[in-house]
């Protein structure tokens, strides 16, 4: 049974460009199916704006199935909206009620400059990945499957971290604009696996130092974990911190030799 | 409708569409006059050649853009793209090198925090002596001054400990200050709507304020009971010829405003510890499924012990339990 949600008031951030001053504008959505996703609701609103000859609201989206990490949005003060473990694209209108007022803002951080309206540039995450989010793999013929034995708990833990889709909700939700959950997830993913061992310490050092150039610092609020659409635990931040310490000691020893 | 930028192939030549769908010339609209429109042209191929697994295939390649009204902006300037192209950092002495990053500063916060937690705990336990009477407390004070005597000269051990504590406090303050500056810079434009925090606690949100008030209390506490600037009783000797620490405490806490400040500051210290004592485990990377669930219990318990012990002193003095 499909019902509809009526009389929504949307306060949406409109901003023409990175250096232009933005402001909230209010829109009404008279009726929308409760089966519509949040982004479909925005599509619906955009269709109407376009047919009225107005500029559509710009927002990021791609796969709409919660795996690409392109959608963003601060919905009522929460990154990816009120449903936990869900990206905005998987948030459905049934989470809202008739007559609700919804405030939609772009993710805000110095590292995530607004491109336009609700769209932000998250390429600073790419800088962190480029500095260490890779492994060295020999080229040539494809190796046999399961050639490298990995204990099941290790592979499970690595996969938990590998779920990170790099959407930036952790940075958006963090009161300090820190990217420790993102970086921690990448480090925990690669550093736990045997394939990630050759660069293990260099990775964590470069990634932490690159992160420092753009993002704030972790003060252990735990908001990132609450906002993460993949519910990645702050345990990865502890692992990041531990490996950073080990890296500092290990590289010092290596340099001394 | 605007094309979503996620579909833009960044290595191709991107040209702006001069007209939007509704026929309005967007790039030359009077609204945008004065906004610098970028030069459009072939961008340097920016996709790193090897082994970089990009997490997001979307158009996130623009490094710097000034006043670009459309999302398809591609800048010709790009920084290093691979780990091997990372600019090398200046070699610094080990500890300075560690302290130069935010993660390293958090280590300093945690280690200095542990040291000060140790002090606060033993300070509270020592003060419990006031329940045994003036002789016990005054002899305990003498014992602290004579710590390790005759191995070390009079008062030296105490001063070494004090110097350590002052260093810890200064490092804690410096790390807190520089991390705060870093964090403010990381979000220069605040959220324009109300945030709805899900996990952050009152304690974690007010660390700066509880810390600053606790610091003000330390300053008062030293002026009061150590230097005697605001306590006329300091300097008095007891019957054994020892410093009358007991009398100083009673004199100080009998003043109601002082007692109230004492209680408030210690409750705030407890709130500070509630978050700090838990935070230590995260910052130092002490994370283990064996004890993870005890971390919160430890922090709550530690904060409670400190608050209950310390707050009992002004109440005991005002109630007349101590001081008769």
Could you list some keywords that capture this structure?
heterodimer, A: alpha+beta, Ubiquitin-like (UB roll), 2 domains, two-stranded antiparallel sheet, 8 helices, 7 strands, about 15% strand, B: about 325 residues, mainly alpha, 3 helical TM bundles of succinate and fumarate reductases, 9 helices, about 0% strand
Provide structural commentary.
The complex is a heterodimer of chains A (257) and B (324). Chain A is of the alpha+beta class and 257 residues long. In chain A, 37% of the residues lie in helices and 14% in strands. In chain A, the strands form 2 sheets. A 5-stranded mixed β-sheet of chain A has the order 2-1-5-3-4. Chain B is mainly alpha-helical. Chain B folds into 2 domains: 9-88, no CATH class; 94-189 and 197-319, 3 helical TM bundles of succinate and fumarate reductases (Up-down Bundle). The longest helix of chain B is centred in the middle third of the chain and has 31 residues, at 156-186. Classes of the chains: A alpha+beta (257), B mainly alpha (324). Chains A and B meet through α2, α6, α7 and α8 of A and α1, α2, α4 and α8 of B.
Provide a brief overview of the structure.
The complex is a heterodimer of chains A (257) and B (324). Chain A has 257 residues and is α+β, with helices and mostly antiparallel strands. Helix content of chain A is 37%, strand content 14%.
Q: How much β-strand is present in the residues of chain A?
A: 5-15%
Number of strands of chain A: 7
Number of strands of chain B: 0
Q: CATH class of the largest domain in chain B, please?
A: Mainly Alpha
- CATH 4th-level superfamily of the largest domain in chain B: Fumarate reductase/succinate dehydrogenase, transmembrane subunit
Tell me the name of the CATH class of the largest domain in chain A: Mainly Alpha
Largest interface: A-B, 97 and 84 residues
Proper CATH architecture of the largest domain in chain B? Up-down Bundle
Distance between the termini of chain B: 83 Å
């Amino acid at each position: 049974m499909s019902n509809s949600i009526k009389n929504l008031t949307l306060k949406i951030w409109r901003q023409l460009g990175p250096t232009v001053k933005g402001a909230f504008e209010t829109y009404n959505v008279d009726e929308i199916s409760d089966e519509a996703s949040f982004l479909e609701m925005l599509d619906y609103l955009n269709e109407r704006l376009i047919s009225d000859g107005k500029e559509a609201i710009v927002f990021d989206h791609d796969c709409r199935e919660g795996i690409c990490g392109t959608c963003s949005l601060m919905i009522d003060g929460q990154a990816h909206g009120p449903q936990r473990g869900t990206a905005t694209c998987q948030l459905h209108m049934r989470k809202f009620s008739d007559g609700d007022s919804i405030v939609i803002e772009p993710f805000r951080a110095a590292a995530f400059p607004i491109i336009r309206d609700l769209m932000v540039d998250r390429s600073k995450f790419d800088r962190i990945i480029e500095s260490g989010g890779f492994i060295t793999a020999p080229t040539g013929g494809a190796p046999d499957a399961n050639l490298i034995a990995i204990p099941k708990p290790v592979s499970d833990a690595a996969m938990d971290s590998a779920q990170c889709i790099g959407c930036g909700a952790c940075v958006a939700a963090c009161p300090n604009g820190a990217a420790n959950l993102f970086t921690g997830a990448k480090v925990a993913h690669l550093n736990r696996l045997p394939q990630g061992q050759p660069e293990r310490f260099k990775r964590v050092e470069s990634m932490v130092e690159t992160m420092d150039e753009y993002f704030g610092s972790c003060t252990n609020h735990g908001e990132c974990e609450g906002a993460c659409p993949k519910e990645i635990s702050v345990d990865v931040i502890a692992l990041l911190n531990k490996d950073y310490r080990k890296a500092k000691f290990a590289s010092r020893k290596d340099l001394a030799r | 409708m605007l094309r979503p930028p996620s579909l833009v192939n960044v290595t191709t030549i991107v040209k702006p569409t001069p007209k939007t769908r509704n026929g309005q010339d967007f790039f030359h609209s009077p609204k945008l006059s004065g906004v610098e429109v970028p030069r459009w042209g072939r961008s340097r191929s920016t996709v790193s050649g090897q082994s970089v697994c990009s997490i997001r295939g979307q158009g996130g390649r623009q490094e710097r853009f000034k006043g670009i009204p459309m999302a398809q902006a591609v800048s010709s300037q790009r920084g290093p793209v691979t780990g091997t192209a990372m600019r090398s950092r200046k070699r610094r002495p080990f500890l300075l090198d560690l302290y130069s990053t935010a993660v390293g500063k958090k280590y300093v916060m945690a280690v200095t925090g542990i040291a000060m937690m140790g002090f606060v705990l033993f300070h509270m336990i020592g003060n419990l002596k006031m329940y045994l009477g003036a002789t016990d407390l005054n002899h305990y004070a003498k014992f602290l001054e004579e710590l390790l005597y005759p191995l070390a000269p009079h008062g030296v051990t105490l001063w070494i400990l004090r110097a350590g504590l002052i260093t810890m406090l200064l490092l804690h303050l410096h790390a807190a200050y520089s991390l705060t500056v870093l964090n403010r810079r990381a979000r220069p434009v605040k959220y324009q709507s109300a945030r709805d925090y899900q996990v952050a606690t009152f304690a974690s949100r007010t660390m700066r304020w509880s810390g600053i008030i606790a610091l003000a209390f330390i300053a008062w506490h030293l002026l009061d009971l150590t230097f005697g600037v605001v306590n006329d009783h300091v300097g008095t000797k007891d019957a054994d010829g020892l410093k009358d620490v007991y009398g100083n405490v009673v004199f100080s806490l009998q003043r109601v405003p002082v007692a109230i400040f004492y209680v408030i500051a210690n409750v705030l210290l407890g709130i500070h510890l509630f978050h700090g004592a838990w935070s230590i485990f995260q910052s130092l990377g002490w994370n283990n499924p064996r004890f993870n669930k005890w971390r919160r219990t430890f922090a709550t318990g530690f904060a409670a012990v400190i608050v209950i012990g310390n707050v009992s002193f002004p109440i005991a003095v005002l109630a007349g339990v101590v001081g008769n």
